[in-house]
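Why this split exists: single-chain examples teach little about how molecules sit against one another. For that reason, every record in the complexes split bundles all components of an assembly together and asks for one structure covering all of them. Below is a record exactly as it appears in the raw files.
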Amino acid sequence: MTLRVTNSLTGEREDFDPDEEPVLLYYCGLTTSDPAHLGHARGWVHVDVMHRWLEELGYEVRHVENFTDVNEKIVARVGESGDSEADVARSYIGTIIDDMRSLNLKRAEVYPRVSEHIPEIIDLVERLVDRGYAYEANGSVYFDVTSFEDYGKLSNQDVEEMEAQGSPDEQSEKRNPADFALWKADGVEPEEIEDHQHGGAAPAADACKTAQTWDSPWGEGRPGWHIECSAMSMTHLDETIDIHVGGQDLVFPHHENEIAQSEAATGDTFARYWLHVRLLEAPDDEKMSSSLGNFESVAEAIEHYGPNVVRTFLLSTAYHSPATYNSETVGEAEQRWDALERGYERAREAVDSIDARTKVESESLRTAVEDTRSDFEDAMNDDFNTRGALTALRELTNAVNAHLDDVEEYDYRALREAIETFERLGGEVLGLAFGDSADDGDVELAEDLVELVLDVREQERAAGNYDRADDLRADLEALGVEVQDTDDGPEFRLG
RNA sequence: GCCAGGGUGGCAGAGUCUGGCCGAACGCGUCCGCCUGCAGAGCGGAUCAUCGCCGGUUCAAAUCCGGCCCCUGGCUCCA
């Protein structure tokens, strides 16, 4: 079975058939004007898993993800987290990269920045002017939408009916209301950023003085929003790439404009498959965060739930399907991850406890391992159905638990296969960190201390002092240590 | 208004492209039993779905066709 993906360009599920290797993948990254929130993480994690699955299928992947570090919204933050547009952008890029690391994202090959690609952008704009697709007006350059026949093919928009893009000043300079800016004359005006400013920001007029401008054939100015992705995609990948991914909110105008300017410039297809990640939704009746609308920042979410629960939550719905963020949906993800991890740990402990030469064979466990692998593969090949992939792993934990509970003697080989399946599919492909908790010194010390408390508790239990024992258990739980009494004595997990 | 995507059990959410294995998956919840000092975890079992509405095609429809209703997102900076 081959990989099939839903291509927004056609609206159809198509066989994925890259031109040649490596597979060229571009993800429209963030504007670095705010900390990343869970909605951004949804995009990241899904692209990450797409990347990982392509590699699992044997493809080599070249993955590029940009940072938009030149933007009015960044200028609006001057004074809050830096003294200039460039400062603010740099500081957010730093926190965003930290967030990506803590989410266990695989690194892209390149994280290009707009500010470092001005020459390429200017070249591209010149090319469009030369070819008659763009025109200059008062030091700005606009793309002439009517000159590109396919304009609107991604978003199914009708140029005639479209609302005008851009500021009133821009409107008067444009030939058609739907034309969009490739290059904008001069710097940033105070009124362009006032709406975006928070407390702590510098006065708009001062902030605007820090906005970067560059010399161009049309005079001092700044690149328009859309041109950057075309320029960076072509620079770091190729004029035609395989997969372009972004949030669904970018379909129009951003991606539509990218296609127009790129294909007008090269005369060739810009991206063969367009995949759009549906936006995470939050119910308005449930405030999850004070700072960022209804979403927690990535850092807060990781602090609360840990990276594995966050990933499990985001992968619990396919990238394409609606997903809601609230306490129930996250709670379900939490349980799902806990169950997977417990199943994995039980399998490991069982394997360690038995002789590798054991001849016991469990037909049901072996079948379950095989089913998990093929169900997982089918799900991922079906337009990256990560929900289905998670379900397949869950069925494996069910089979492991049943085997361990029902049988006197364990099937060593099947358990090893189960462990390998968790690690490869859950770990390598879904990016969940199985059995990762005990690899630093602090954790070891914590574990030793918990053992000590549990020894005391066992003594209290032996003496019949159950109230004391329960208090200790409750105290540990308050610290995030989950205690379970078993036939072999107490066991615990650090939360 | 226009564009896109949805409406499946108490919740959440696969399945719809490629009609029959769907008498509808996994999970959560609820109930019973095992285990247990208790709890949790786990195991065994049970409970819970006229698949938005109406009509059509078919031997057969959650799945295909037509009409209607409702929801979400986008159309302005946004992953």
